[in-house]
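I have been asked to look over a protein record a colleague put together. Alongside the sequence sits a line of tokens, each denoting a local backbone shape. Please read both lines and tell me whether the tokens look consistent with the sequence. I do not need a full report, just your reasoning and any doubts. I have pasted the whole thing underneath without changing anything.
>
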Amino acid sequence: MLATYNDLILNKDANETAAEYVRTRIREIVKDPATAELLSPRNHPIGTKRPPIDTDYYETFNRDNVTLVDIRSSPIEEITRTGLRTKDADYNLDSIVFATGFDAMTGTLFKLGIRGRCGVSLAGEWAHGPHAYLGIAAAGFPNMFIITGPGSPSVLSNMPVSIEQHVEWIADCIRYLQRHDLDTIEANREAQEAWVRQVNEIAAATLFPQADSWYVGANIPGKPRVFMPYPGGVGTYRQLCTEIAEKGYEGFVKTRTREAVAG
């Protein structure tokens, strides 16, 4: 949907037109008006969170044995012996499937306990938000490559395709290091910060930051609110990666037996 109309993520009026179309379709499918309204996107621009478009998703709410509970207006207060209790009611349940969100883009990396030069932790270095050049490498962490990390298209793209592009780029980079008898490679800090600024500037021109989504870490209490993926398009990003590699991995610092080789 976002690719078909390229102004939907840039123009609030265009986005609202699309959102109202989706609401109309939901009202046509879901028989109960109150349930249909709860399912209709209103608290964020459409597309700034992943829309539920699975087969028969909305039809499910027409079933007699399905109840939609709005936990914004009636929060869950307690798990009971027979189910759970919200602010307004008790629900008897045979089983509970917890879907409480996940720490996207950075959480898994932090759990690895990665440390770079002088023992600096990646979690500490990124305490105010991730800083990675191309979403592939971070200054101060030599020979560490990140697959579809923050600052790359990653979750805004077809993930297997973007993973493949990163793996091939990294493999070519390693071959380059071997051919030139280089020992280490890491992001140049100035190039890294320039890339982070570019990602932030592009994101600020879109509607993405207006949503409390996991794209900005809003589902994790205390996590810095930063739009993490690169929203400039997969084609543009791939071209930039290719050009950087063709220029001898511009924006990276390479070393040969302790001798710095700037790129």
In short: Strands lie at 76-79, 83-86, 90-92, 184-187, 252-256, 259-262. The longest helix spans residues 159-179. The radius of gyration is 23 Å.
